[in-house]
Every structure is written in C-alpha cells, then in structure tokens.
Amino acid sequence: MSLSDRLAQARRGREGTAPEAAPDAGTSMRQRRQTSADPLADLKASVHASLLESLGPQLYDSRLTEDELAGKVRTTLQEVLAQEETPLTVTDRARLAQEIADDILGYGPLEPFLRDPEVTEVMVNGATTIYIERAGRLHPAEGRFTDDAHLRRTIEKIVARVGRRVDESSPMVDARLPDGSRVNAVVPPLSIDGPTLTIRKFSADPYEAEDLVTFGTLTTTVTEFLSDCVRGRLNIMVSGGTGAGKTTTLNVLSSFIPTTERIITIEDAAELQLHQEHVVRLEARPPNIEGKGEITIRDLVRNSLRMRPDRIVVGEVRDAAALDMLQAMNTGHDGSICTAHSNGPRDTLARIETMVLMAGADLPLRAIREQMAGALDMIVHQSRFRDGSRRVTHVTEVVGMEGDVITLQDIFLFDYAAGYDENGVPLGTLRSTGLRPKFLDKLEASGIHVDTSIFAFERFGA
C-alpha cells in the first residue's frame, strides 16, 4: 500500500469513528506502532513449552551432533503438533513447525533472513521492528519477535556461543555467528526502546575481483593495476565510510598476494577469507567479566612481527595500533594492507595521525607525518552511493613530504560529472587523471612491469 493510500485510509477511519483517547505519555513510540499480535502466538507458546518438556536435557547433550539434535527436535515437534486439537491448515501447521524449530535450533524470526543469500545485513530495532539490507538498500521485514524477552533470549544464545555475555553490567557486545557473521547487540538501559541487534552477514562465497568489476566497484584496468601494486609489495590503505565495502575490497586485494608468501591477518572479528595456503588468522579478544584478559589489535600487530610475516593484513586500524602498523611498514614489512574509516584520502592521513597520537608517544607532528609518508604508498578510497552501490572513488598515491605537508596525487578518480540515471544509479566510472605514479620504479625493481598507457588522461564528464 502506498503512502497516499495509507493516509486516505487513516482519514476514512477518523471520519467514521469516535476520536480515541490520547496515548499515555509513558507509552513508547515503538509500542504505539506495534502490529497486531500473531493469531497463532498462544498455540505457538503452548507447543513450544510441550516440546521443551518432552526433550528436556537432550537439547543440551554435547554428544549429539547438530544434525542429530535437529532430527530429534523435528520428530518430537510433529508428535506434539499431532496431539493439538486446534484445527490448523497445512500452511499454518508448516509455518508453526518452522518457527518453533527456528526458535529451538537457531535464532527464531531471524533465521529466514540468515538463510537468504541476498540479505547482507539484518537490523533489529526492538522486538517488533526488523530491517534487512538487500543490494545496498534497506527494507522493512515482516518478521517479529514475540516480545523483548524473546529477543533478549536470542541475543544471549548468539553471544553465549562465542563465550561472551550481555547484561546490565555489560550492555554492549560484539560477537560473531559460527559462520563468521559479525554481530553487535545493545540492551537496556543503553537501548531505550528495547534490545537492538545488528548482524553483518558473512558471505560463504566471497566476492572476487571479477565480481567487483561486474558490480562497477572497480574497472578492469584499475583492478589489474591494483594487482600489480599488491604483487609489487606496495603498502596500501583502504579507506571509506561505514558500509562502503572496505572489507570486501581488502579481501580482493589480499587475494592478489602470491601463494608463496606467509600472510598474517589481524581482525576484531575474523571476516577475511583468503585462499592462499600459508595464512595465519589472529582475532582480538575483549576483556572478561573482571575486565581482564583483553587482547587488542595493537597487541596482535606487535606480536605478528615476531611471527616472521611476509605480509600483514589488518582488518581495520582504529586506535593506537596505527603507530605499530606504520613502524612495521617502515621496517621491512612491505606489502602490508589495512583499512580505516575516513571520508577521503586526505582525511585518511588526518585520522592515522590522530590515532598515532592516541598511542601516547611524545612525537612531534612532523615526525609522525614523515612516518606516514615513508610507510604508505597508496590509498584506495571507497564510497557508498545513494542507490546502495559501492564504488572505489580514489586511487591516490602518497608521494612524500613538502615542508610539513604530506603530498598526495590522484591516479584514478571517479567521474561524478557523468551524473545519475532516473533510478539514482551513478553513470560515472574510474578515470585516469593523466598523472603517472612515482612508485613505478619500485614496481620495476620488483619485476612488475605496468603498461603506462593506462595513465593517459581521460576527459571527465564525457
């Protein structure tokens, strides 16, 4: 139903009925927009309780495999449903059985979205409001939890599987599902309108370079150029905003690393999927209940230097680990790749500078900038457009220092002048600025020959 239809329907309802009393001041906006209750909710609760009573301790028997437990649950569920006297259609019976099985074995109303390969993110704003992301766009979903307690149990089930907890003393938690999907949960008192849950889904079949070219994220020419840069051991920073696709691009760039090299990956939540044989994956650890035992990205970066890495790949630099990363790049660990949140290449340098200062080292700004200019060779910046597409908009060389300023030069830029079509899809692509990077000599020294014709100037807005 369109917005105009809903407004007309609301006007007809107001004209034909007596005015309702104003909602109580204590009623939350979320409660006022709740949809009508599930007509099968009472039956579902009854069958759910009977199922738990029938299975009992078997649900927690560690000797049962996941498939064996699922078989027992579905068999017992059919037996319990057969004893119910409430008349049900075949469709209602199948839906009821699926929803209860999802609650017992999985994550309840979230299961259909977690199974859907087209859904890339699931956002739960309280028990009655679920949004999903498809093709970069947000859509309201039909699923809902019974109440906040139901949602809270689902969150606790998720975090318990990775040894985390969520309660009033620890109301925020980062976790991941067994398949690697990244999870963030916030519960009251921090989340005012009930528990919230955000799941960034993990792709079982990660995107490859050809996929990014198909999506328009990169062009074939730029992809081949970036492959040369990775194989030539340039230090690359991938930057962009939240949801811009940095991790996907990082994964593609990392796939260009030769299989003969030893790769150490460092992440907050393990997401990278590298196909090389010699890969060591490290993951940070939050503090325990007593606030002890935390292992930070910075700790892992320091430790990785003792692990004889050929390449260090950091999922995201967001704190004082920036200093250790720069030092690693400046002390023989060429070819490192990492990501950072920023609004552009110049802003990326400002953020790294700020993060280095967070390390508490008493360094003058010029010394920090010299470290950055010496460590970084290139910044690949990515943006998310209004149609939901993710595009690389800058491939920028870090040239060096001029006075106290780090000099940058754009090698490829996105052509914003091409405009957008009627659906808001950008018509532009990456175009060469006509500038030839100074690190070509470094690539030649590594045996990588780049066809310089790709740097010929391309007119923008054409």
Describe this structure in a few short sentences:
The protein is α/β, with parallel strands linked by helices and 462 residues long. Helix content is 35%, strand content 19%. It has a nine-stranded mixed beta sheet, sandwiched between helices. It has a six-stranded antiparallel beta sheet with strand order 3-2-1-6-5-4.
**Main sheet characteristics:** 9 strands, mixed
Fraction of residues in helices? Answer: 25-40%
Distance between the termini: 41 Å
Radius of gyration: 26 Å
- CATH class of the largest domain, anyone? Alpha Beta
Strand content: 15-25%
Using DSSP, what is the number of strands?
15
Low-confidence stretches: 6-37
CATH superfamily membership of the largest domain, which one? Answer: P-loop containing nucleotide triphosphate hydrolases
**What is the helix/strand order?**
HHHHHHEEEHEEEHHEHEEHEHEHHEEEEH
Number of helices: 15
Question: Can you walk me through this structure?
Answer:
By secondary structure, this protein is of the alpha/beta class. It folds into three domains: 39-105; 109-202, Beta-Lactamase (2-Layer Sandwich), CATH 3.30.450; 209-455, P-loop containing nucleotide triphosphate hydrolases (Rossmann fold), CATH 3.40.50. Helix content is 35%, strand content 19%. The chain contains 15 helices and 15 strands. It has helices at 3-16, 29-32, 41-55, 66-83, 90-105, 111-115, 148-160, 209-215, 220-231, 246-254, 297-304, 321-329, 345-358, 365-375, 440-445, and strands spanning 119-125, 130-134, 137-140, 172-176, 182-186, 196-200, 236-240, 263-267, 279-283, 311-314, 337-341, 378-384, 390-402, 405-414, 430-432. The chain has a nine-stranded mixed sheet, sandwiched between helices. Helix 4 crosses helix 5, helix 12 (321-329) crosses helix 14 (365-375) and helix 13 (345-358) crosses helix 14 (365-375). It is elongated, with a radius of gyration of 26 Å. The chain starts with a helix and ends in a 17-residue tail after the last helix. Mean pLDDT is 82; it is low at 6-37.
